[in-house]
Amino acid sequence: MAVTSEIQAPRSGRVAPKYTRHGSSRGNFEMLAWLFMRVSGLVLVVLVFGHLFVNLMVGEGVHAIDFGFVAGKWADPFWQIWDLAMLWLAMLHGTNGVRTIINDYADKDGTRFWLKSVLYAATAVIIVLGTLVIFTFDPCPPNAAAELLPSFCPAP
Fold first, then answer.
1. Is 4 contained in some domain?
2. Which of 57, 59, 130, 154 is most deeply packed, by most CB within 10 A?
3. CA distance 68 to 59
4. Among the listed residues 74, 41, 81, 39, the one whose alpha carbon sits nearest the alpha carbon of residue 55
């Protein structure tokens, strides 16, 4: 005699209370974070390959990359914006990915809070410092000692 038992469909059982949605659900944030990862990933592919092509293939290639090359590149607002977009998108994309990993693997709320706090603080510091470097970079600062200036700077 065969014994048959009914197999429930996946997710048809009761959902644990901690996984139920409430009025203040974060579902929209997670959906937007998921969408951001896809869009920023595509944009980053274009930005990174454009960056690599210009730096490694155009002109003398890798042999031309030095302080003067970067100074000349960042003298153009187009390349400042390009590098800024690459910095911001890479940092936010990576931060969102690490945030997801923390949410998946940190079991305790306190651990999750502190890991994400450190992550967000590090992200903010790197974004702020990187933005400042891109926009305040001056290869020929005024009142600098002549022996410290690159050869292409006019003599003081």
1. no
2. 130
3. 14
4. 74
Q: What are phi and psi of 65, to 5 degrees?
A: -80, 115
Tokens linked to 29: 């944030």
For position 77, which CATH number holds?
A: 1.20.1300.10
Neighbours of 83 (CB within 10 A): 19
Across the range 34-48, mean pLDDT stands at 96
Q: What is the pLDDT of residues 118-141, one digit of tens each?
A: 999 999 999 999 999 999 988 877
pLDDT digits (tens, 9 = 90+) for 70-109: 888 888 899 999 999 999 999 999 999 999 999 999 889 9
Looking at residue 93, its amino acid is: H
Query: What average pLDDT does this structure show over 1-9?
Result: 65
State how far the Cα of 128 lies from the Cα of 60, in Å rounded to an integer: 32
Burial profile 11-29: b = 16 or more Cβ within 10 angstroms, e = fewer: eeeeeeeeeeeeeeeeeee
Report if residue 150 sits inside a domain. Answer: no
Q: How many folded domains does the chain comprise?
A: 1
